[in-house]
Amino acid sequence: MKRVFQLIIICFITTLAEDAFAQVYKTEKGKAEFLSKAPLNEFVGTSSNLNGLIDVDKNLVDFFIDLNTLKTGISLRDKHMRENYLETKKYPFSEFTGKFKTLPKFDQKNHDEVFVVGVFKIHGVEKQVEIPASVQKTSSNELAFESKFVIKLSDYKIAIPKVVFYELAEEQEVTISGVLKK
After folding, report:
1. Domain range spanning residue 174?
2. H runs (alpha helix) in the chain
3. Is it the case that residue 85 has pLDDT exceeding 50?
4. What DSSP character marks residue 83?
5. Total domain count for the chain?
């Protein structure tokens, strides 16, 4: 019995030690922004509620956002965007899960320009994507990140009614950024 207790203690201490040296960075206050450039109308939607995780040891990158937190500056447009296009009652979240194509150096002096490959999901549709990103270790406990990429609404079965074709662009420029803490 004493030996079993010792093994349990050793396992517990080993788990604590692994967690102490794990390189997992998280944020709940990252920024997400989309830019819609249509012929007759250009607008931006933003949210400061981007959740993200980078697990260096597992080469895991995961970001998600509650689409109900996106705001364009016009409440009626926000309501139509959520109800008619994004259908947030049915599909409230957008998520990207992937891994670095080449693991960044996480250097405090330089930004690492990398590509992240994985699955982007919005409106219930998942699609394999490769997106560029910039990552920099800003301190021993923080990583700064930014990524800019384009999504086509039709790729994710988000319809654009013909009447508002000139007000809503088929391609949306998406930018995510923030600071992840260890």
Report:
1. 23-181
2. 2-21, 75-80
3. yes
4. I
5. 1
Rounded Cα distance between 82 and 80, Å, is 5
In this structure, are residues 130 and 116 in contact, taking their beta carbons and an 8 Å threshold? yes
Dihedral sign from CA coordinates of 7, 8, 11, 12? negative
Measured distance CA(125)–CA(102) in Å, rounded: 26
Determine the Cα–Cα distance for residues 83 and 77; give it in Å rounded to an integer: 10
The 10s digit of each residue's pLDDT in 28-55 is 999 999 999 888 788 999 999 999 999 9
Residue 76 contacts residue 83 (beta carbons within 8 Å): no
Report the Cα 86 to chain-centroid distance in Å. 17
Could you read off the pLDDT of 132-180 as tens digits, one per residue? 999 999 988 999 999 999 999 999 999 886 665 556 788 999 999 999 9
CATH code of the domain containing 160: 2.40.128.110
Q: How many angstroms separate the CA atoms of 90 and 177, rounded?
A: 26
pTM for the model stands at: 0.82
